[in-house]
Amino acid sequence: MDIAIQLFVNVLIPGSIFALGTVGFSLIYAVTRVFHLAQGGVMIAAGYALFAGVSLLEWPAWAAVLLALAVAVILGGFMNAIVYERMRTRTIVSTAGTLIATLSLLLIVQNILLAFFGSAAKTFGKLSGDIHEIGPVLISTHEIRVLVLTPIILLALGLFLWKSRTGKALRAVADHETVAEIVGISSKKMRALAFVIGSLLAGISGVLFAIEYNLEPSMSTMASVRVFLRAILGGVGSIGGGALGSYLTEAVMVLTGWYWNAAWIDFMAFVMIMAVLLIKPVGLFGKKKRSV
Amino acid sequence: MKNTRFLWWIVAIVLVGVLFYFVSTNKQTADTNTPETVLPPTPSVELEGEVTIGAVVPLTGEGAAYGLPIQQAIMLAVDEINASTGISKQKLIVKYEDGKCEGKEASTSAQKLVNVDQVQYILGAVCSGETLGLAPIINENKVITISPSATSPDITTKGGEYMFRFAPSDALAGRIAAGYAFDDLGAKTAAVLSENTDYAQALRSVFTKAFKDAGGTIVIDEAYNTGITDFRTQALKIKNAGADIVYILPQTPAPGVAIVKALRDQKMDAPLLTAEVLIGRDVAKENAELMEGVIGFEAFYDEESDRASSFLEKYEARFGEAAPFPLFMANGYSSVYLVKDLIEAHPDDIEAAKTTLSTLEGWAGGALGNVTLDENGDIEWNTYSIRKITDGKVEQIETVSL
Hints:
The structure holds two protein chains of two kinds.
Chain A: H1 2-32, H2 39-56, H3 61-90, H4 95-117, H5 125-128, E1 131-134, E2 137-140, H6 141-163, H7 165-175, H8 177-182, H9 187-212, H10 219-234, H11 239-259, H12 265-279
Helix pairs in contact in A: 1-6, 1-7, 1-9, 1-10, 1-11, 2-3, 2-4, 2-9, 2-10, 3-4, 3-9, 4-10, 6-7, 7-9, 10-11, 11-12
Chain B: H1 2-25, E1 50-57, H2 64-83, E2 91-98, H3 103-115, E3 121-124, H4 128-140, E4 144-147, H5 154-158, E5 163-165, H6 170-184, E6 189-195, H7 198-214, E7 217-224, H8 232-241, E8 245-249, H9 253-265, E9 272-274, H10 281-286, E10 295-299, H11 306-319, H12 326-345, H13 350-358, E11 363-365, E12 368-371, E13 383-390, E14 393-401
Parallel strand pairs in B: 1-2, 1-3, 3-4, 4-5, 6-7, 6-8, 8-9, 9-10
Antiparallel strand pairs in B: 10-13, 11-12, 13-14
Helix pairs in contact in B: 2-12, 3-4, 6-7, 8-9
């Protein structure tokens, strides 16, 4: 029983961190139909901005966090304004073309981070906080932060999307862009908003990630792939699916690591994703969407 | 609409400008594109003509943690050579290719260097997997290759006749670690967590065999794939198995630091042993509290000797940071001087150069004092240094000679 609780916590911590990034990715896809592969890049860039704030500028932690979130939002917003929107107006939005663009943005971000910060791993020892013993579980202050913040943020996002006017407008564009335009919703503004919210989520995810683990520029690609796979598992475009996909994948990884062997962690995660997709190709909560 | 767009641009440009300014004035790490504190020396002799050699190092990805400092050490040597007499009055040019610490990338890089740049000497690669990857290419094309840091025992047998290395094989390092754990620390059980790469897996098998031969039991022996960041579950597993020591074998510092953190978070206070990655000087300094007490094993390099301290001082003066991996970087630096000697002695005869290398004895140059290579291209080196991280510094506890 003790072990079960500890393993459960082990699933929740990385599961929550990635759930935020994945939900952001899904939201962006739902509203804009763009596979924003650079989401991982935004996450890690936010982590590096936190590092810059804390270690280079020596600001207090809260200011550095705000800086990190601002960087994430501006970066994501820019990617949309400069690259994705342009691709829309110039040509018919071809999936392959946009995919290449997102991949390029990811690599650009990764290499800018490498050039700026170098390749040595960056850590945030002090921000982790002390270890607390809660029952059988040893958990740090930061990890408690992760477990407390994530459900609050996801709940807030859910309330926003379902109860507020702007949230409904976002969902309208996600559902059917042309009809949304007809009823007077500016889909361009909604797309920009989706990127702002999605990048904000990536920023939070990146900050939590950076403090829990450490930072290296090559993690941008790793984070992007993880976020992408979890979003696909949950059903791209589904917010709840994104969160579920993240927790489910993490559960498989933790259980494989515990009962079997660390070497098979990635393998089992992929096997599980493939199995789900074979049974339900649109993902757990995915819906067959019209192509608009 | 137009006004808000304009405002966005202003905000963004200001923010980026501010960030740029602060980061560049507070830069912690040096990289190859920024102006250095001391400029490279200007040539004193007129150089005519060029000699081009190649270098395969990880310039991006996780391996860049080694690749970039080693590249800088090589640059230091090249600029020094070009500032004095060049190679027989010719300018030395090094073409760098990115091996990304992966066998197949290194293979492609070597192909390019051999076919397009037509080099006859290659410095590299840095990682064992990379080096094994380019071995077939360089042997087929008869290109002399000297690696500063590839330590896998497989290179002795699979490196081929044109492969040489300045870093001693891990066949020794793993045994010394096992011996220290069993005899000195009195450990009866050990947990081994290694990355799934050539280098780490070779060390893993050497250590586990040596530890079992000594009479110990390996309670956990797992490998993780490159890219895994979360080690809470493996740390829990190791703690529950009750290991007396934990032998941590990451390929690059980042996952290693994450493993140490996960173990400490689980209040695991068994001694933590590692090879040379986690005792990189910058890793120890930046994570002083976390890494306190970690014990590593690296080939003994007398940093107090004249050649060594001269090299280390010059490096720090030029690049503004203390050399993170002194031995590997000294190897990179010295291999440039060795190649210079070889080219000057045998300007057109690769076979003669290869023979000279295979029988090299007591060569002194660059930052090394006494280089002897055996018939497999391995360097003769039987002294290892056992180092412990104390207060963010990597202190030597003792040396072991076999």
